[in-house]
């Protein structure tokens, strides 16, 4: 072997060596040696000539950066991965690549792009391998629709994801969908269901999660905490949030830390302890900005606005709400816009500024109409106060009491006959 050949062997990793090095990185990653793992993987990426190996190592890098909350890097690797999949022209690789693109965009709150990549995934004609990913695609699509406040489609996607989870006996997926359903029902203010689903997720972690990453436990505790806060069970909310934060800190999970800090701040706000709330909002905002969670930033501005309102700092409150509104508009999150207009309306009423008041009322009503947040049976609003809701198999949502009084006349919104309540 001449020197030139030997040089080639060093530079160009073959299939076996690639596989070995990826495994080595995984072991380091699981042992919480993230930096070392990333170093190994990036080396593989530079040196491998095997497209399958390149695809897989990009997958590792995508997952790791997602968990660290480095969403821009996550997107960068997802774009490289889809290029590799295109070169290989394999529908299974393409499906997985598009799923990772969807997820990166979901994390960066680019919800329209998320939906469109998810649709691409569902249209791919892959083998059973990619069919197994469909549940995760539906979950991501549900999260994106929830981000856009398109509630019926969000629920429809979550139901599909749950069905895939049941059919494939995929408890991790079921756990993640349950957490998302917690957020869904928090937004629609059915706080009983908002607590039920994350509790179910916590149960799954207890029953099946011995070998799972602790982040599943942390995630379910966080969602339980939010529901407890909404139910005004603040000590329970505090306890769950502390548990979640503890794990998030141990694992360097920045995205979850930001959410927990936001929730801590909200708990203190509910206790009327603004002095404790403000610094937590501030810390949360720092991380949300760093990782690029714009929806989180919008929620921080809303919380800060409510605190300032408690302190009767009307102009400062309006300022914070204005920032929330700019983000809500950019992201297409109509529910946040609705909340901003509702709060601003109250402030202008206090200030007796009639023109601005009228403007906010008009915008508020526009949001209500666009969101279709009313019960198709009684015509009253949904999501205005804590009320029990129930969805039909068509994913139209009604007050539970209205459905019970309706007998079996079918869905009044789409006239489908089946009245059997859906999964969720
Ligand atoms: Zn009703
Ligand atoms: Zn219907």
From TrEMBL:
The keyword Zinc applies. It is a peripheral membrane protein. PANTHER family: 43 KDA RECEPTOR-ASSOCIATED PROTEIN OF THE SYNAPSE. Keywords: Cell membrane, Cytoplasm, Cytoskeleton, Lipoprotein, Membrane, Metal-binding, Myristate, Phosphoprotein, Postsynaptic cell membrane, Repeat, Synapse, TPR repeat, Zinc, Zinc-finger. Pfam families: Rapsyn_N, TPR_12, TPR_8, zf-RING_11. TPR repeats lie at residues 135-168, 298-331. It is found in: Cytoplasm, Cytoskeleton; Postsynaptic cell membrane. InterPro entries: Postsynaptic, Postsynaptic_CS, RAPsyn, Rapsyn_myristoylation/link_N, TPR-like_helical_dom_sf, TPR_rpt, Znf_RING, Znf_RING/FYVE/PHD. Belongs to the RAPsyn family. SUPFAM superfamilies: RING/U-box, TPR-like. GO terms for molecular function: acetylcholine receptor binding; protein-membrane adaptor activity; zinc ion binding. Residues 375-415 form the RING-type domain. Postsynaptic protein required for clustering of nicotinic acetylcholine receptors (nAChRs) at the neuromuscular junction. It may link the receptor to the underlying postsynaptic cytoskeleton, possibly by direct association with actin or spectrin. One of its GO terms (biological process) is positive regulation of neuromuscular synaptic transmission. Gene3D superfamilies: Tetratricopeptide repeat domain, Zinc/RING finger domain, C3HC4 (zinc finger). GO terms for cellular component: cytoplasm; cytoskeleton; neuromuscular junction; postsynaptic membrane. This is 43 kDa receptor-associated protein of the synapse.
